[in-house]
Specification:
Keywords: Glycolysis. This protein has 467 residues and is α/β, with parallel strands linked by helices. The protein contains 17 helices and 14 strands. It has 2 domains: 316 residues, Alkaline Phosphatase, subunit A (3-Layer(aba) Sandwich), CATH 3.40.720; 133 residues, no CATH class. It is globular, with a radius of gyration of 23 Å. About 9% of the residues have low confidence. The protein binds zinc ion.
């Protein structure tokens, strides 16, 4: 049992989206994680306990939303109700229980050229003849579209659903009803849109329909804090993850400059999590509220479970950028070094004792360019043991806290230390099990063995109590 006079235990949970990969011939049949120079991640593995995790179940490749739910202790078969609501809440739209939302990604993308949900419908046959039109929508269009969709009840519906109806059937019915009711309203908006005017000028066909994806209902679940007894916060600029966190009652921290893509400032994320886990001795960051322009103050006494989501590594996997993925992992390692420094400074005050946990939510191998079923490495250690594994406080004094950009290595570029791909890392574990490096291969030798994501929170909580 935890003695009440002991420092309160708090966890920094770093989720590296898409971290897992497979052995690559160009890296001497090692994974990007194995060839990356990640001394801080290796020290966490060396200082703690390790294992391989199947986020949902063995052999199942999954999406980020389902895998996150599983990791955070929610049974998908009971709670999952589509991703649309997560996306909508993540972009700032308030949703009540029972509201339905669809994913219409391009509409809400301010400046980035993306695969679009805009498509061309042949009115005579009712068949979509082409899809995936691309176009850049300006920010002023977004508000218009949001309003337009809102007033057309496309985004918000409080459906009276028959209880017990399977979700797959519910989705089909909702989509069908919406398409039947609102199909005629799309062309009036879309045909006159500047994107289409440009396409006409370029001799291309026009988009006259919006395809609806990811039907999702605002889920009703017990809050994370009630299930786990830990006050949770999250830094997740990626909208679907932020929306998922909000659905579970997790406060979403503001982190200036954190973007959820390659332009992100990892230092800002580390700083926000460190402050949230250090409060009240440091001021807690403000938190995001869907439907409101202003952020509200975070909990004055801080949080016990700080979830730091990193998306860029998953993007590198989707972009099939093997060298960038390895370089990106090195940047993640650097930010984790900054986080450990900030938390160790806070731990010195004596009120809190910190733990660091790092894992992924699914593999995104660069060879496939998509999510796959390979398990992800999992590591968890006490911050004090991490300090021991890196050789003491002096290691931290060499870590600058300045923000830094992610590397800009293009796919096919060289890895400066490519020779490391032929080397074996040598070392002894500092504490915990025999694992002394963080990667997919080494983690298999960890004391936790191979486990599923639904067991993860139990492992973390048990470790907090036991160690
Ligand atoms: Zn992905």
């Amino acid at each position: 049992m935890v003695n009440s006079k002991e420092p309160k235990r708090r966890v920094a949970f770093i989720l590296v989206d898409g971290v897992g990969d497979v052995s690559l011939p160009k890296f001497g049949f090692k994974t990007p994680m194995q060839v990356a120079n990640v001394p801080n991640l290796d020290a966490i593995a060396s200082a703690g306990i390790n294992g391989l995790m199947d986020p949902v179940e063995v052999g199942l490749g999954c999406g980020s939303d389902t895998a996150h739910l599983s990791l955070l202790g929610y049974d998908l078969r009971i709670y999952y109700r589509g991703r649309g609501a997560f996306e909508s809440m993540g972009i700032g739209l308030a949703m009540a229980l029972g509201d339905i939302a669809f994913k219409v990604r391009t509409i809400f993308s301010a400046v980035t050229m993306l695969k679009s949900n805009l498509a061309t419908l042949d009115e005579s046959s009712g068949v979509v003849t082409s899809r995936g039109q691309t176009g850049i929508l300006k920010k002023k269009d977004l508000f218009f579209v949001q309003h337009w969709m809102d007033s057309s009840c496309l985004l918000f519906l409080n459906m009276k659903l028959e209880s017990g109806m399977p979700w797959s059937i519910v989705k089909q019915r909702i989509r069908l009803q919406l398409l039947m009711s609102y199909r005629k309203k799309y062309p009036a908006f879309l045909v006159g849109h500047p994107v289409n005017a440009r396409r006409v000028a370029e001799g291309k066909n026009i988009a006259n329909v919006v395809l609806l994806r990811g039907c999702g209902i605002r889920i009703e679940v017990p809050p994370f804090e009630k299930i786990h007894g830990l006050r949770p916060c999250m830094v997740a600029p990626t909208k679907i993850i932020a929306g998922l966190g909000l659905s579970l009652g997790i406060d979403i921290l503001g982190a200036p400059g954190a973007t959820g893509d390659y332009r992100t400032l990892l230092t800002s994320k580390a700083d926000a999590i460190a402050r949230a886990l250090s409060a009240p001795s440091k001021s807690c960051p403000n938190v995001f509220v869907p439907g409101e322009d202003e952020h509200k103050p975070g909990r004055p006494n801080g949080y016990d479970f700080g979830f730091l989501h990193i998306k860029a590594i998953d993007d590198a996997g989707h972009d099939k950028a093997s060298v960038f993925k390895a370089k990106g992992l090195e940047a993640v390692d650097k930010a984790i070094g900054q986080l450990t420094k900030l938390l160790w400074q806070a731990e010195a005050a004596g009120e809190f004792q910190y733990y660091i946990c790092v894992t992924g939510v699914h593999s995104t191998p660069v060879e496939y360019g998509d999510h796959s079923f390979e398990p992800v490495p999992f590591t968890l250690c006490r911050l004090k043991d991490f300090i021991g594994a890196v050789g003491g406080d002096s290691h931290l004094s060499n870590i600058p806290l300045d923000p830094f950009p992610l590397p800009t290595v293009e796919s096919g570029g060289d890895l400066a230390h490519a020779d490391r791909s032929q080397e074996e890392k040598q070392g002894l574990a500092f504490n915990g099990d025999k694992v002394f490096e963080f990667n997919e291969i080494a983690a298999a030798r960890g004391i936790l063995g191979r486990f599923t994501g639904s067991e993860m929170m139990g492992i973390i909580k048990a470790h907090l109590k036991l160690s």
